[in-house]
Amino acid sequence: MVAYTTANPKHSEYHYTDVPFQLAHYEDHGVGTTDHDIVQTLKQCIAVLQGKGNATTNPHNFTPRQALLMLTHLTGDIAQPLHVGEGYVGKNGGFVVPTQKQLDDKEAFATQGGNNLQLDDIKLTAKSSELIPAAAPDDSKPAAPARTPQATRAFHSYWDTTVVNYAFRRIGARTPEQFAQMVSAGNPVVAPNSGDPVTWPYAWADQTLVVAKLAYADVVPGPMAQQI
Asked: Domain of life here (predicted)?
């Protein structure tokens, strides 16, 4: 791991891209994209596994083993709406689709995958208790203590925990394995990928932008404030 992180100093940025969530498509060199974001990194992994890795297609010099490990992880990340769709907030409030100049001039600001969007945790906790079904009793282990609400909570954290908790309880699943089995048993319609696999990350990002619009649908940015 040390060798990998040393050779890949931007490895933490391989897991996401910051396309404005209002857009329909990921475009190379568009606002919020980089040469080492999740789409470009997935392209490199696929090229390596196709035996087509070279200085141009694999600038990070991934080995086949690294490429396979990254591919299996990042195909999960790219399906996460907050790992693809970014909410940019204008200087005067409200979500905007900024130009690069507006970002450079600090006329608009990235929310870092929703991490800089602070939600009212007390209100959300109360609302969640109304909407999320109670957990099924499990006599095999003691009940976990209830989480104490904070004053605010990052939108990304809310999406990663509360929304997942809701999805599990809604169908009666207790583990990720159970959830996967129950969803698969419903035979969901999944559109097959087509064309050269190296182009698939673009399609995956576009699909996730559709979901990102739903994730941000009822989020209304308030005045900007200094985070402590």
From this structure: Eukaryota
